Amino acid sequence: MSVDVERETDAAPARSARRRGGRTLPRPRVPSAPRVDVRARVSRGLALARPVARSVGGWVHPVVSVVGPAGWLALGLLVAGTWAGRRVGWAEAWTVAVVCGLLLVIAVGFVVGRSSYHVGLSLGEQRVVVGTRAMGEVTVRNTGSRMTLPARIELPVARGLASFRLPRLAAGADHSDLFAIPTRRRGLVVLGPVRSVRGDPIGLLRRQVRWTEPVDLYVHPRTVSLDGASAGFLRDIEGLPTQDLSSNDIAFHALRDYVAGDDRRSIHWKTTARTGRMVVRQFEETRRSHLVVALSTCTGDYAEPDELELAVSCAASLGQQAIREEKAITAITSRGPLRSTTAIRLLDALSVVESSDRDPGLASLGRAAGTAAPDASAVILVMGSTVEPAAVLAGSVAIPAGALTVALRCAPGAAVSRRTLGGVVLVTVGELAQLPQVMRRVAA
């Protein structure tokens, strides 16, 4: 038993150290293997692979994009038929493979070759009113020296697709097609790009070539002229004196001592000669009309989509009239301000206005109106029929004091009405043609 213990105790130091001449030598250290940075190697590999992938994809994608669903099916039947014919020896499988192969070869003849076209897309007008007729024209001219094969021209129109048959064209010949654009709804209609499509009758292969850039068609909301109607309340407030003082205006306020920097033309010489000190005239600033048209785009403020369309048309009519009379105007929606430097820009912006459940209500819209135009002289809140009187009052809280506040309630089919709600004039309009009458009641 003791012998075994001695052997075990002697064996342990023998594994960790060696004895030489009665001295214990340290165990030699084996150098560790260098660390391999896997991420760095992967990154370098991907960097080297990207140019190869681009070059391969540059010629693979055009080839693959030509094959349609029927073409992939024929190709799959070709491969499966060939495999089954060779492996199992089915004559029927060989027949299917040969037929599919012949169809693919024939289809290639319809898509090979280069098309020499000059394609033009033109619109009669790039801005139309909703419901009016809008026309466009696609012109294709063969710029090559050879006759072109028949093809098909496709024109995306918004979410739809218009297709035209293009016949054979001799060298230098052209072909034109007129088309009508639906304008039943307000919005932005994107036409194009025009592309030519060549393919076999079965639809195995289909080659598309893009020829033009997209063209925008703005479908503006309906508007009504407000001459002598809506401008009445603006004329009533314009020119009235305010509590702000100015050194140059129309309404005289008082005399005050001269301060360095005052305009010498404002010095009142008679009083200066009598008192012995220089005094100048002081005036009250006259009000400049600044109209704010605030359109609610909260879905909850409208009972139906027709209410929103009526509200947009009313806002467009008010803004257009103010711009025509060269009044200062600020147009905003629940989502933010609209471009209103010109009538065209305002109508373009209102063409694409849509409602959303996530847009804030009338209270937030009123605060935005007060922030956007703190010097506003009139603020018109345009809304639907579902807005409660409490929400109207909440929306008027942040409107600048002294500004005329009008809440324009749009309810198709409703009778014209006017009532006062606190400091807000609440009017109801049932159709766009009633807007001049409604604004006359506001000015009354």
In short:
The protein is an alpha+beta fold and 444 residues long. The chain is built from 11 helices and 22 strands. The termini are far apart.
Provide structural commentary.
It is a single chain. Helix 9 (362-372) packs parallel to helix 10 (389-396). It is built from eleven helices and 22 strands. With 444 residues, it is of the alpha+beta class. Helix content is 35%, strand content 29%. The chain has helices at 2-16, 38-66, 69-87, 91-111, 231-237, 269-275, 305-324, 343-351, 362-372, 389-396, 435-443; strands at residues 18-20, 23-25, 117-123, 127-129, 134-142, 151-157, 160-166, 174-181, 187-191, 195-199, 206-210, 215-220, 241-246, 251-257, 279-286, 290-295, 328-333, 336-337, 378-383, 404-410, 417-421, 424-429. It folds into four domains: 57-111; 117-220, Immunoglobulins (Immunoglobulin-like, Sandwich), CATH 2.60.40; 243-286, no CATH class; 290-443, von Willebrand factor, type A domain (Rossmann fold, 3-Layer(aba) Sandwich), CATH 3.40.50.410. The strands form six sheets. A seven-stranded mixed beta sheet has the order 18-17-16-19-20-22-21, with helices on both faces. Strands 7-6-10-11 form a four-stranded antiparallel beta sheet. The longest helix has 29 residues, at 38-66.
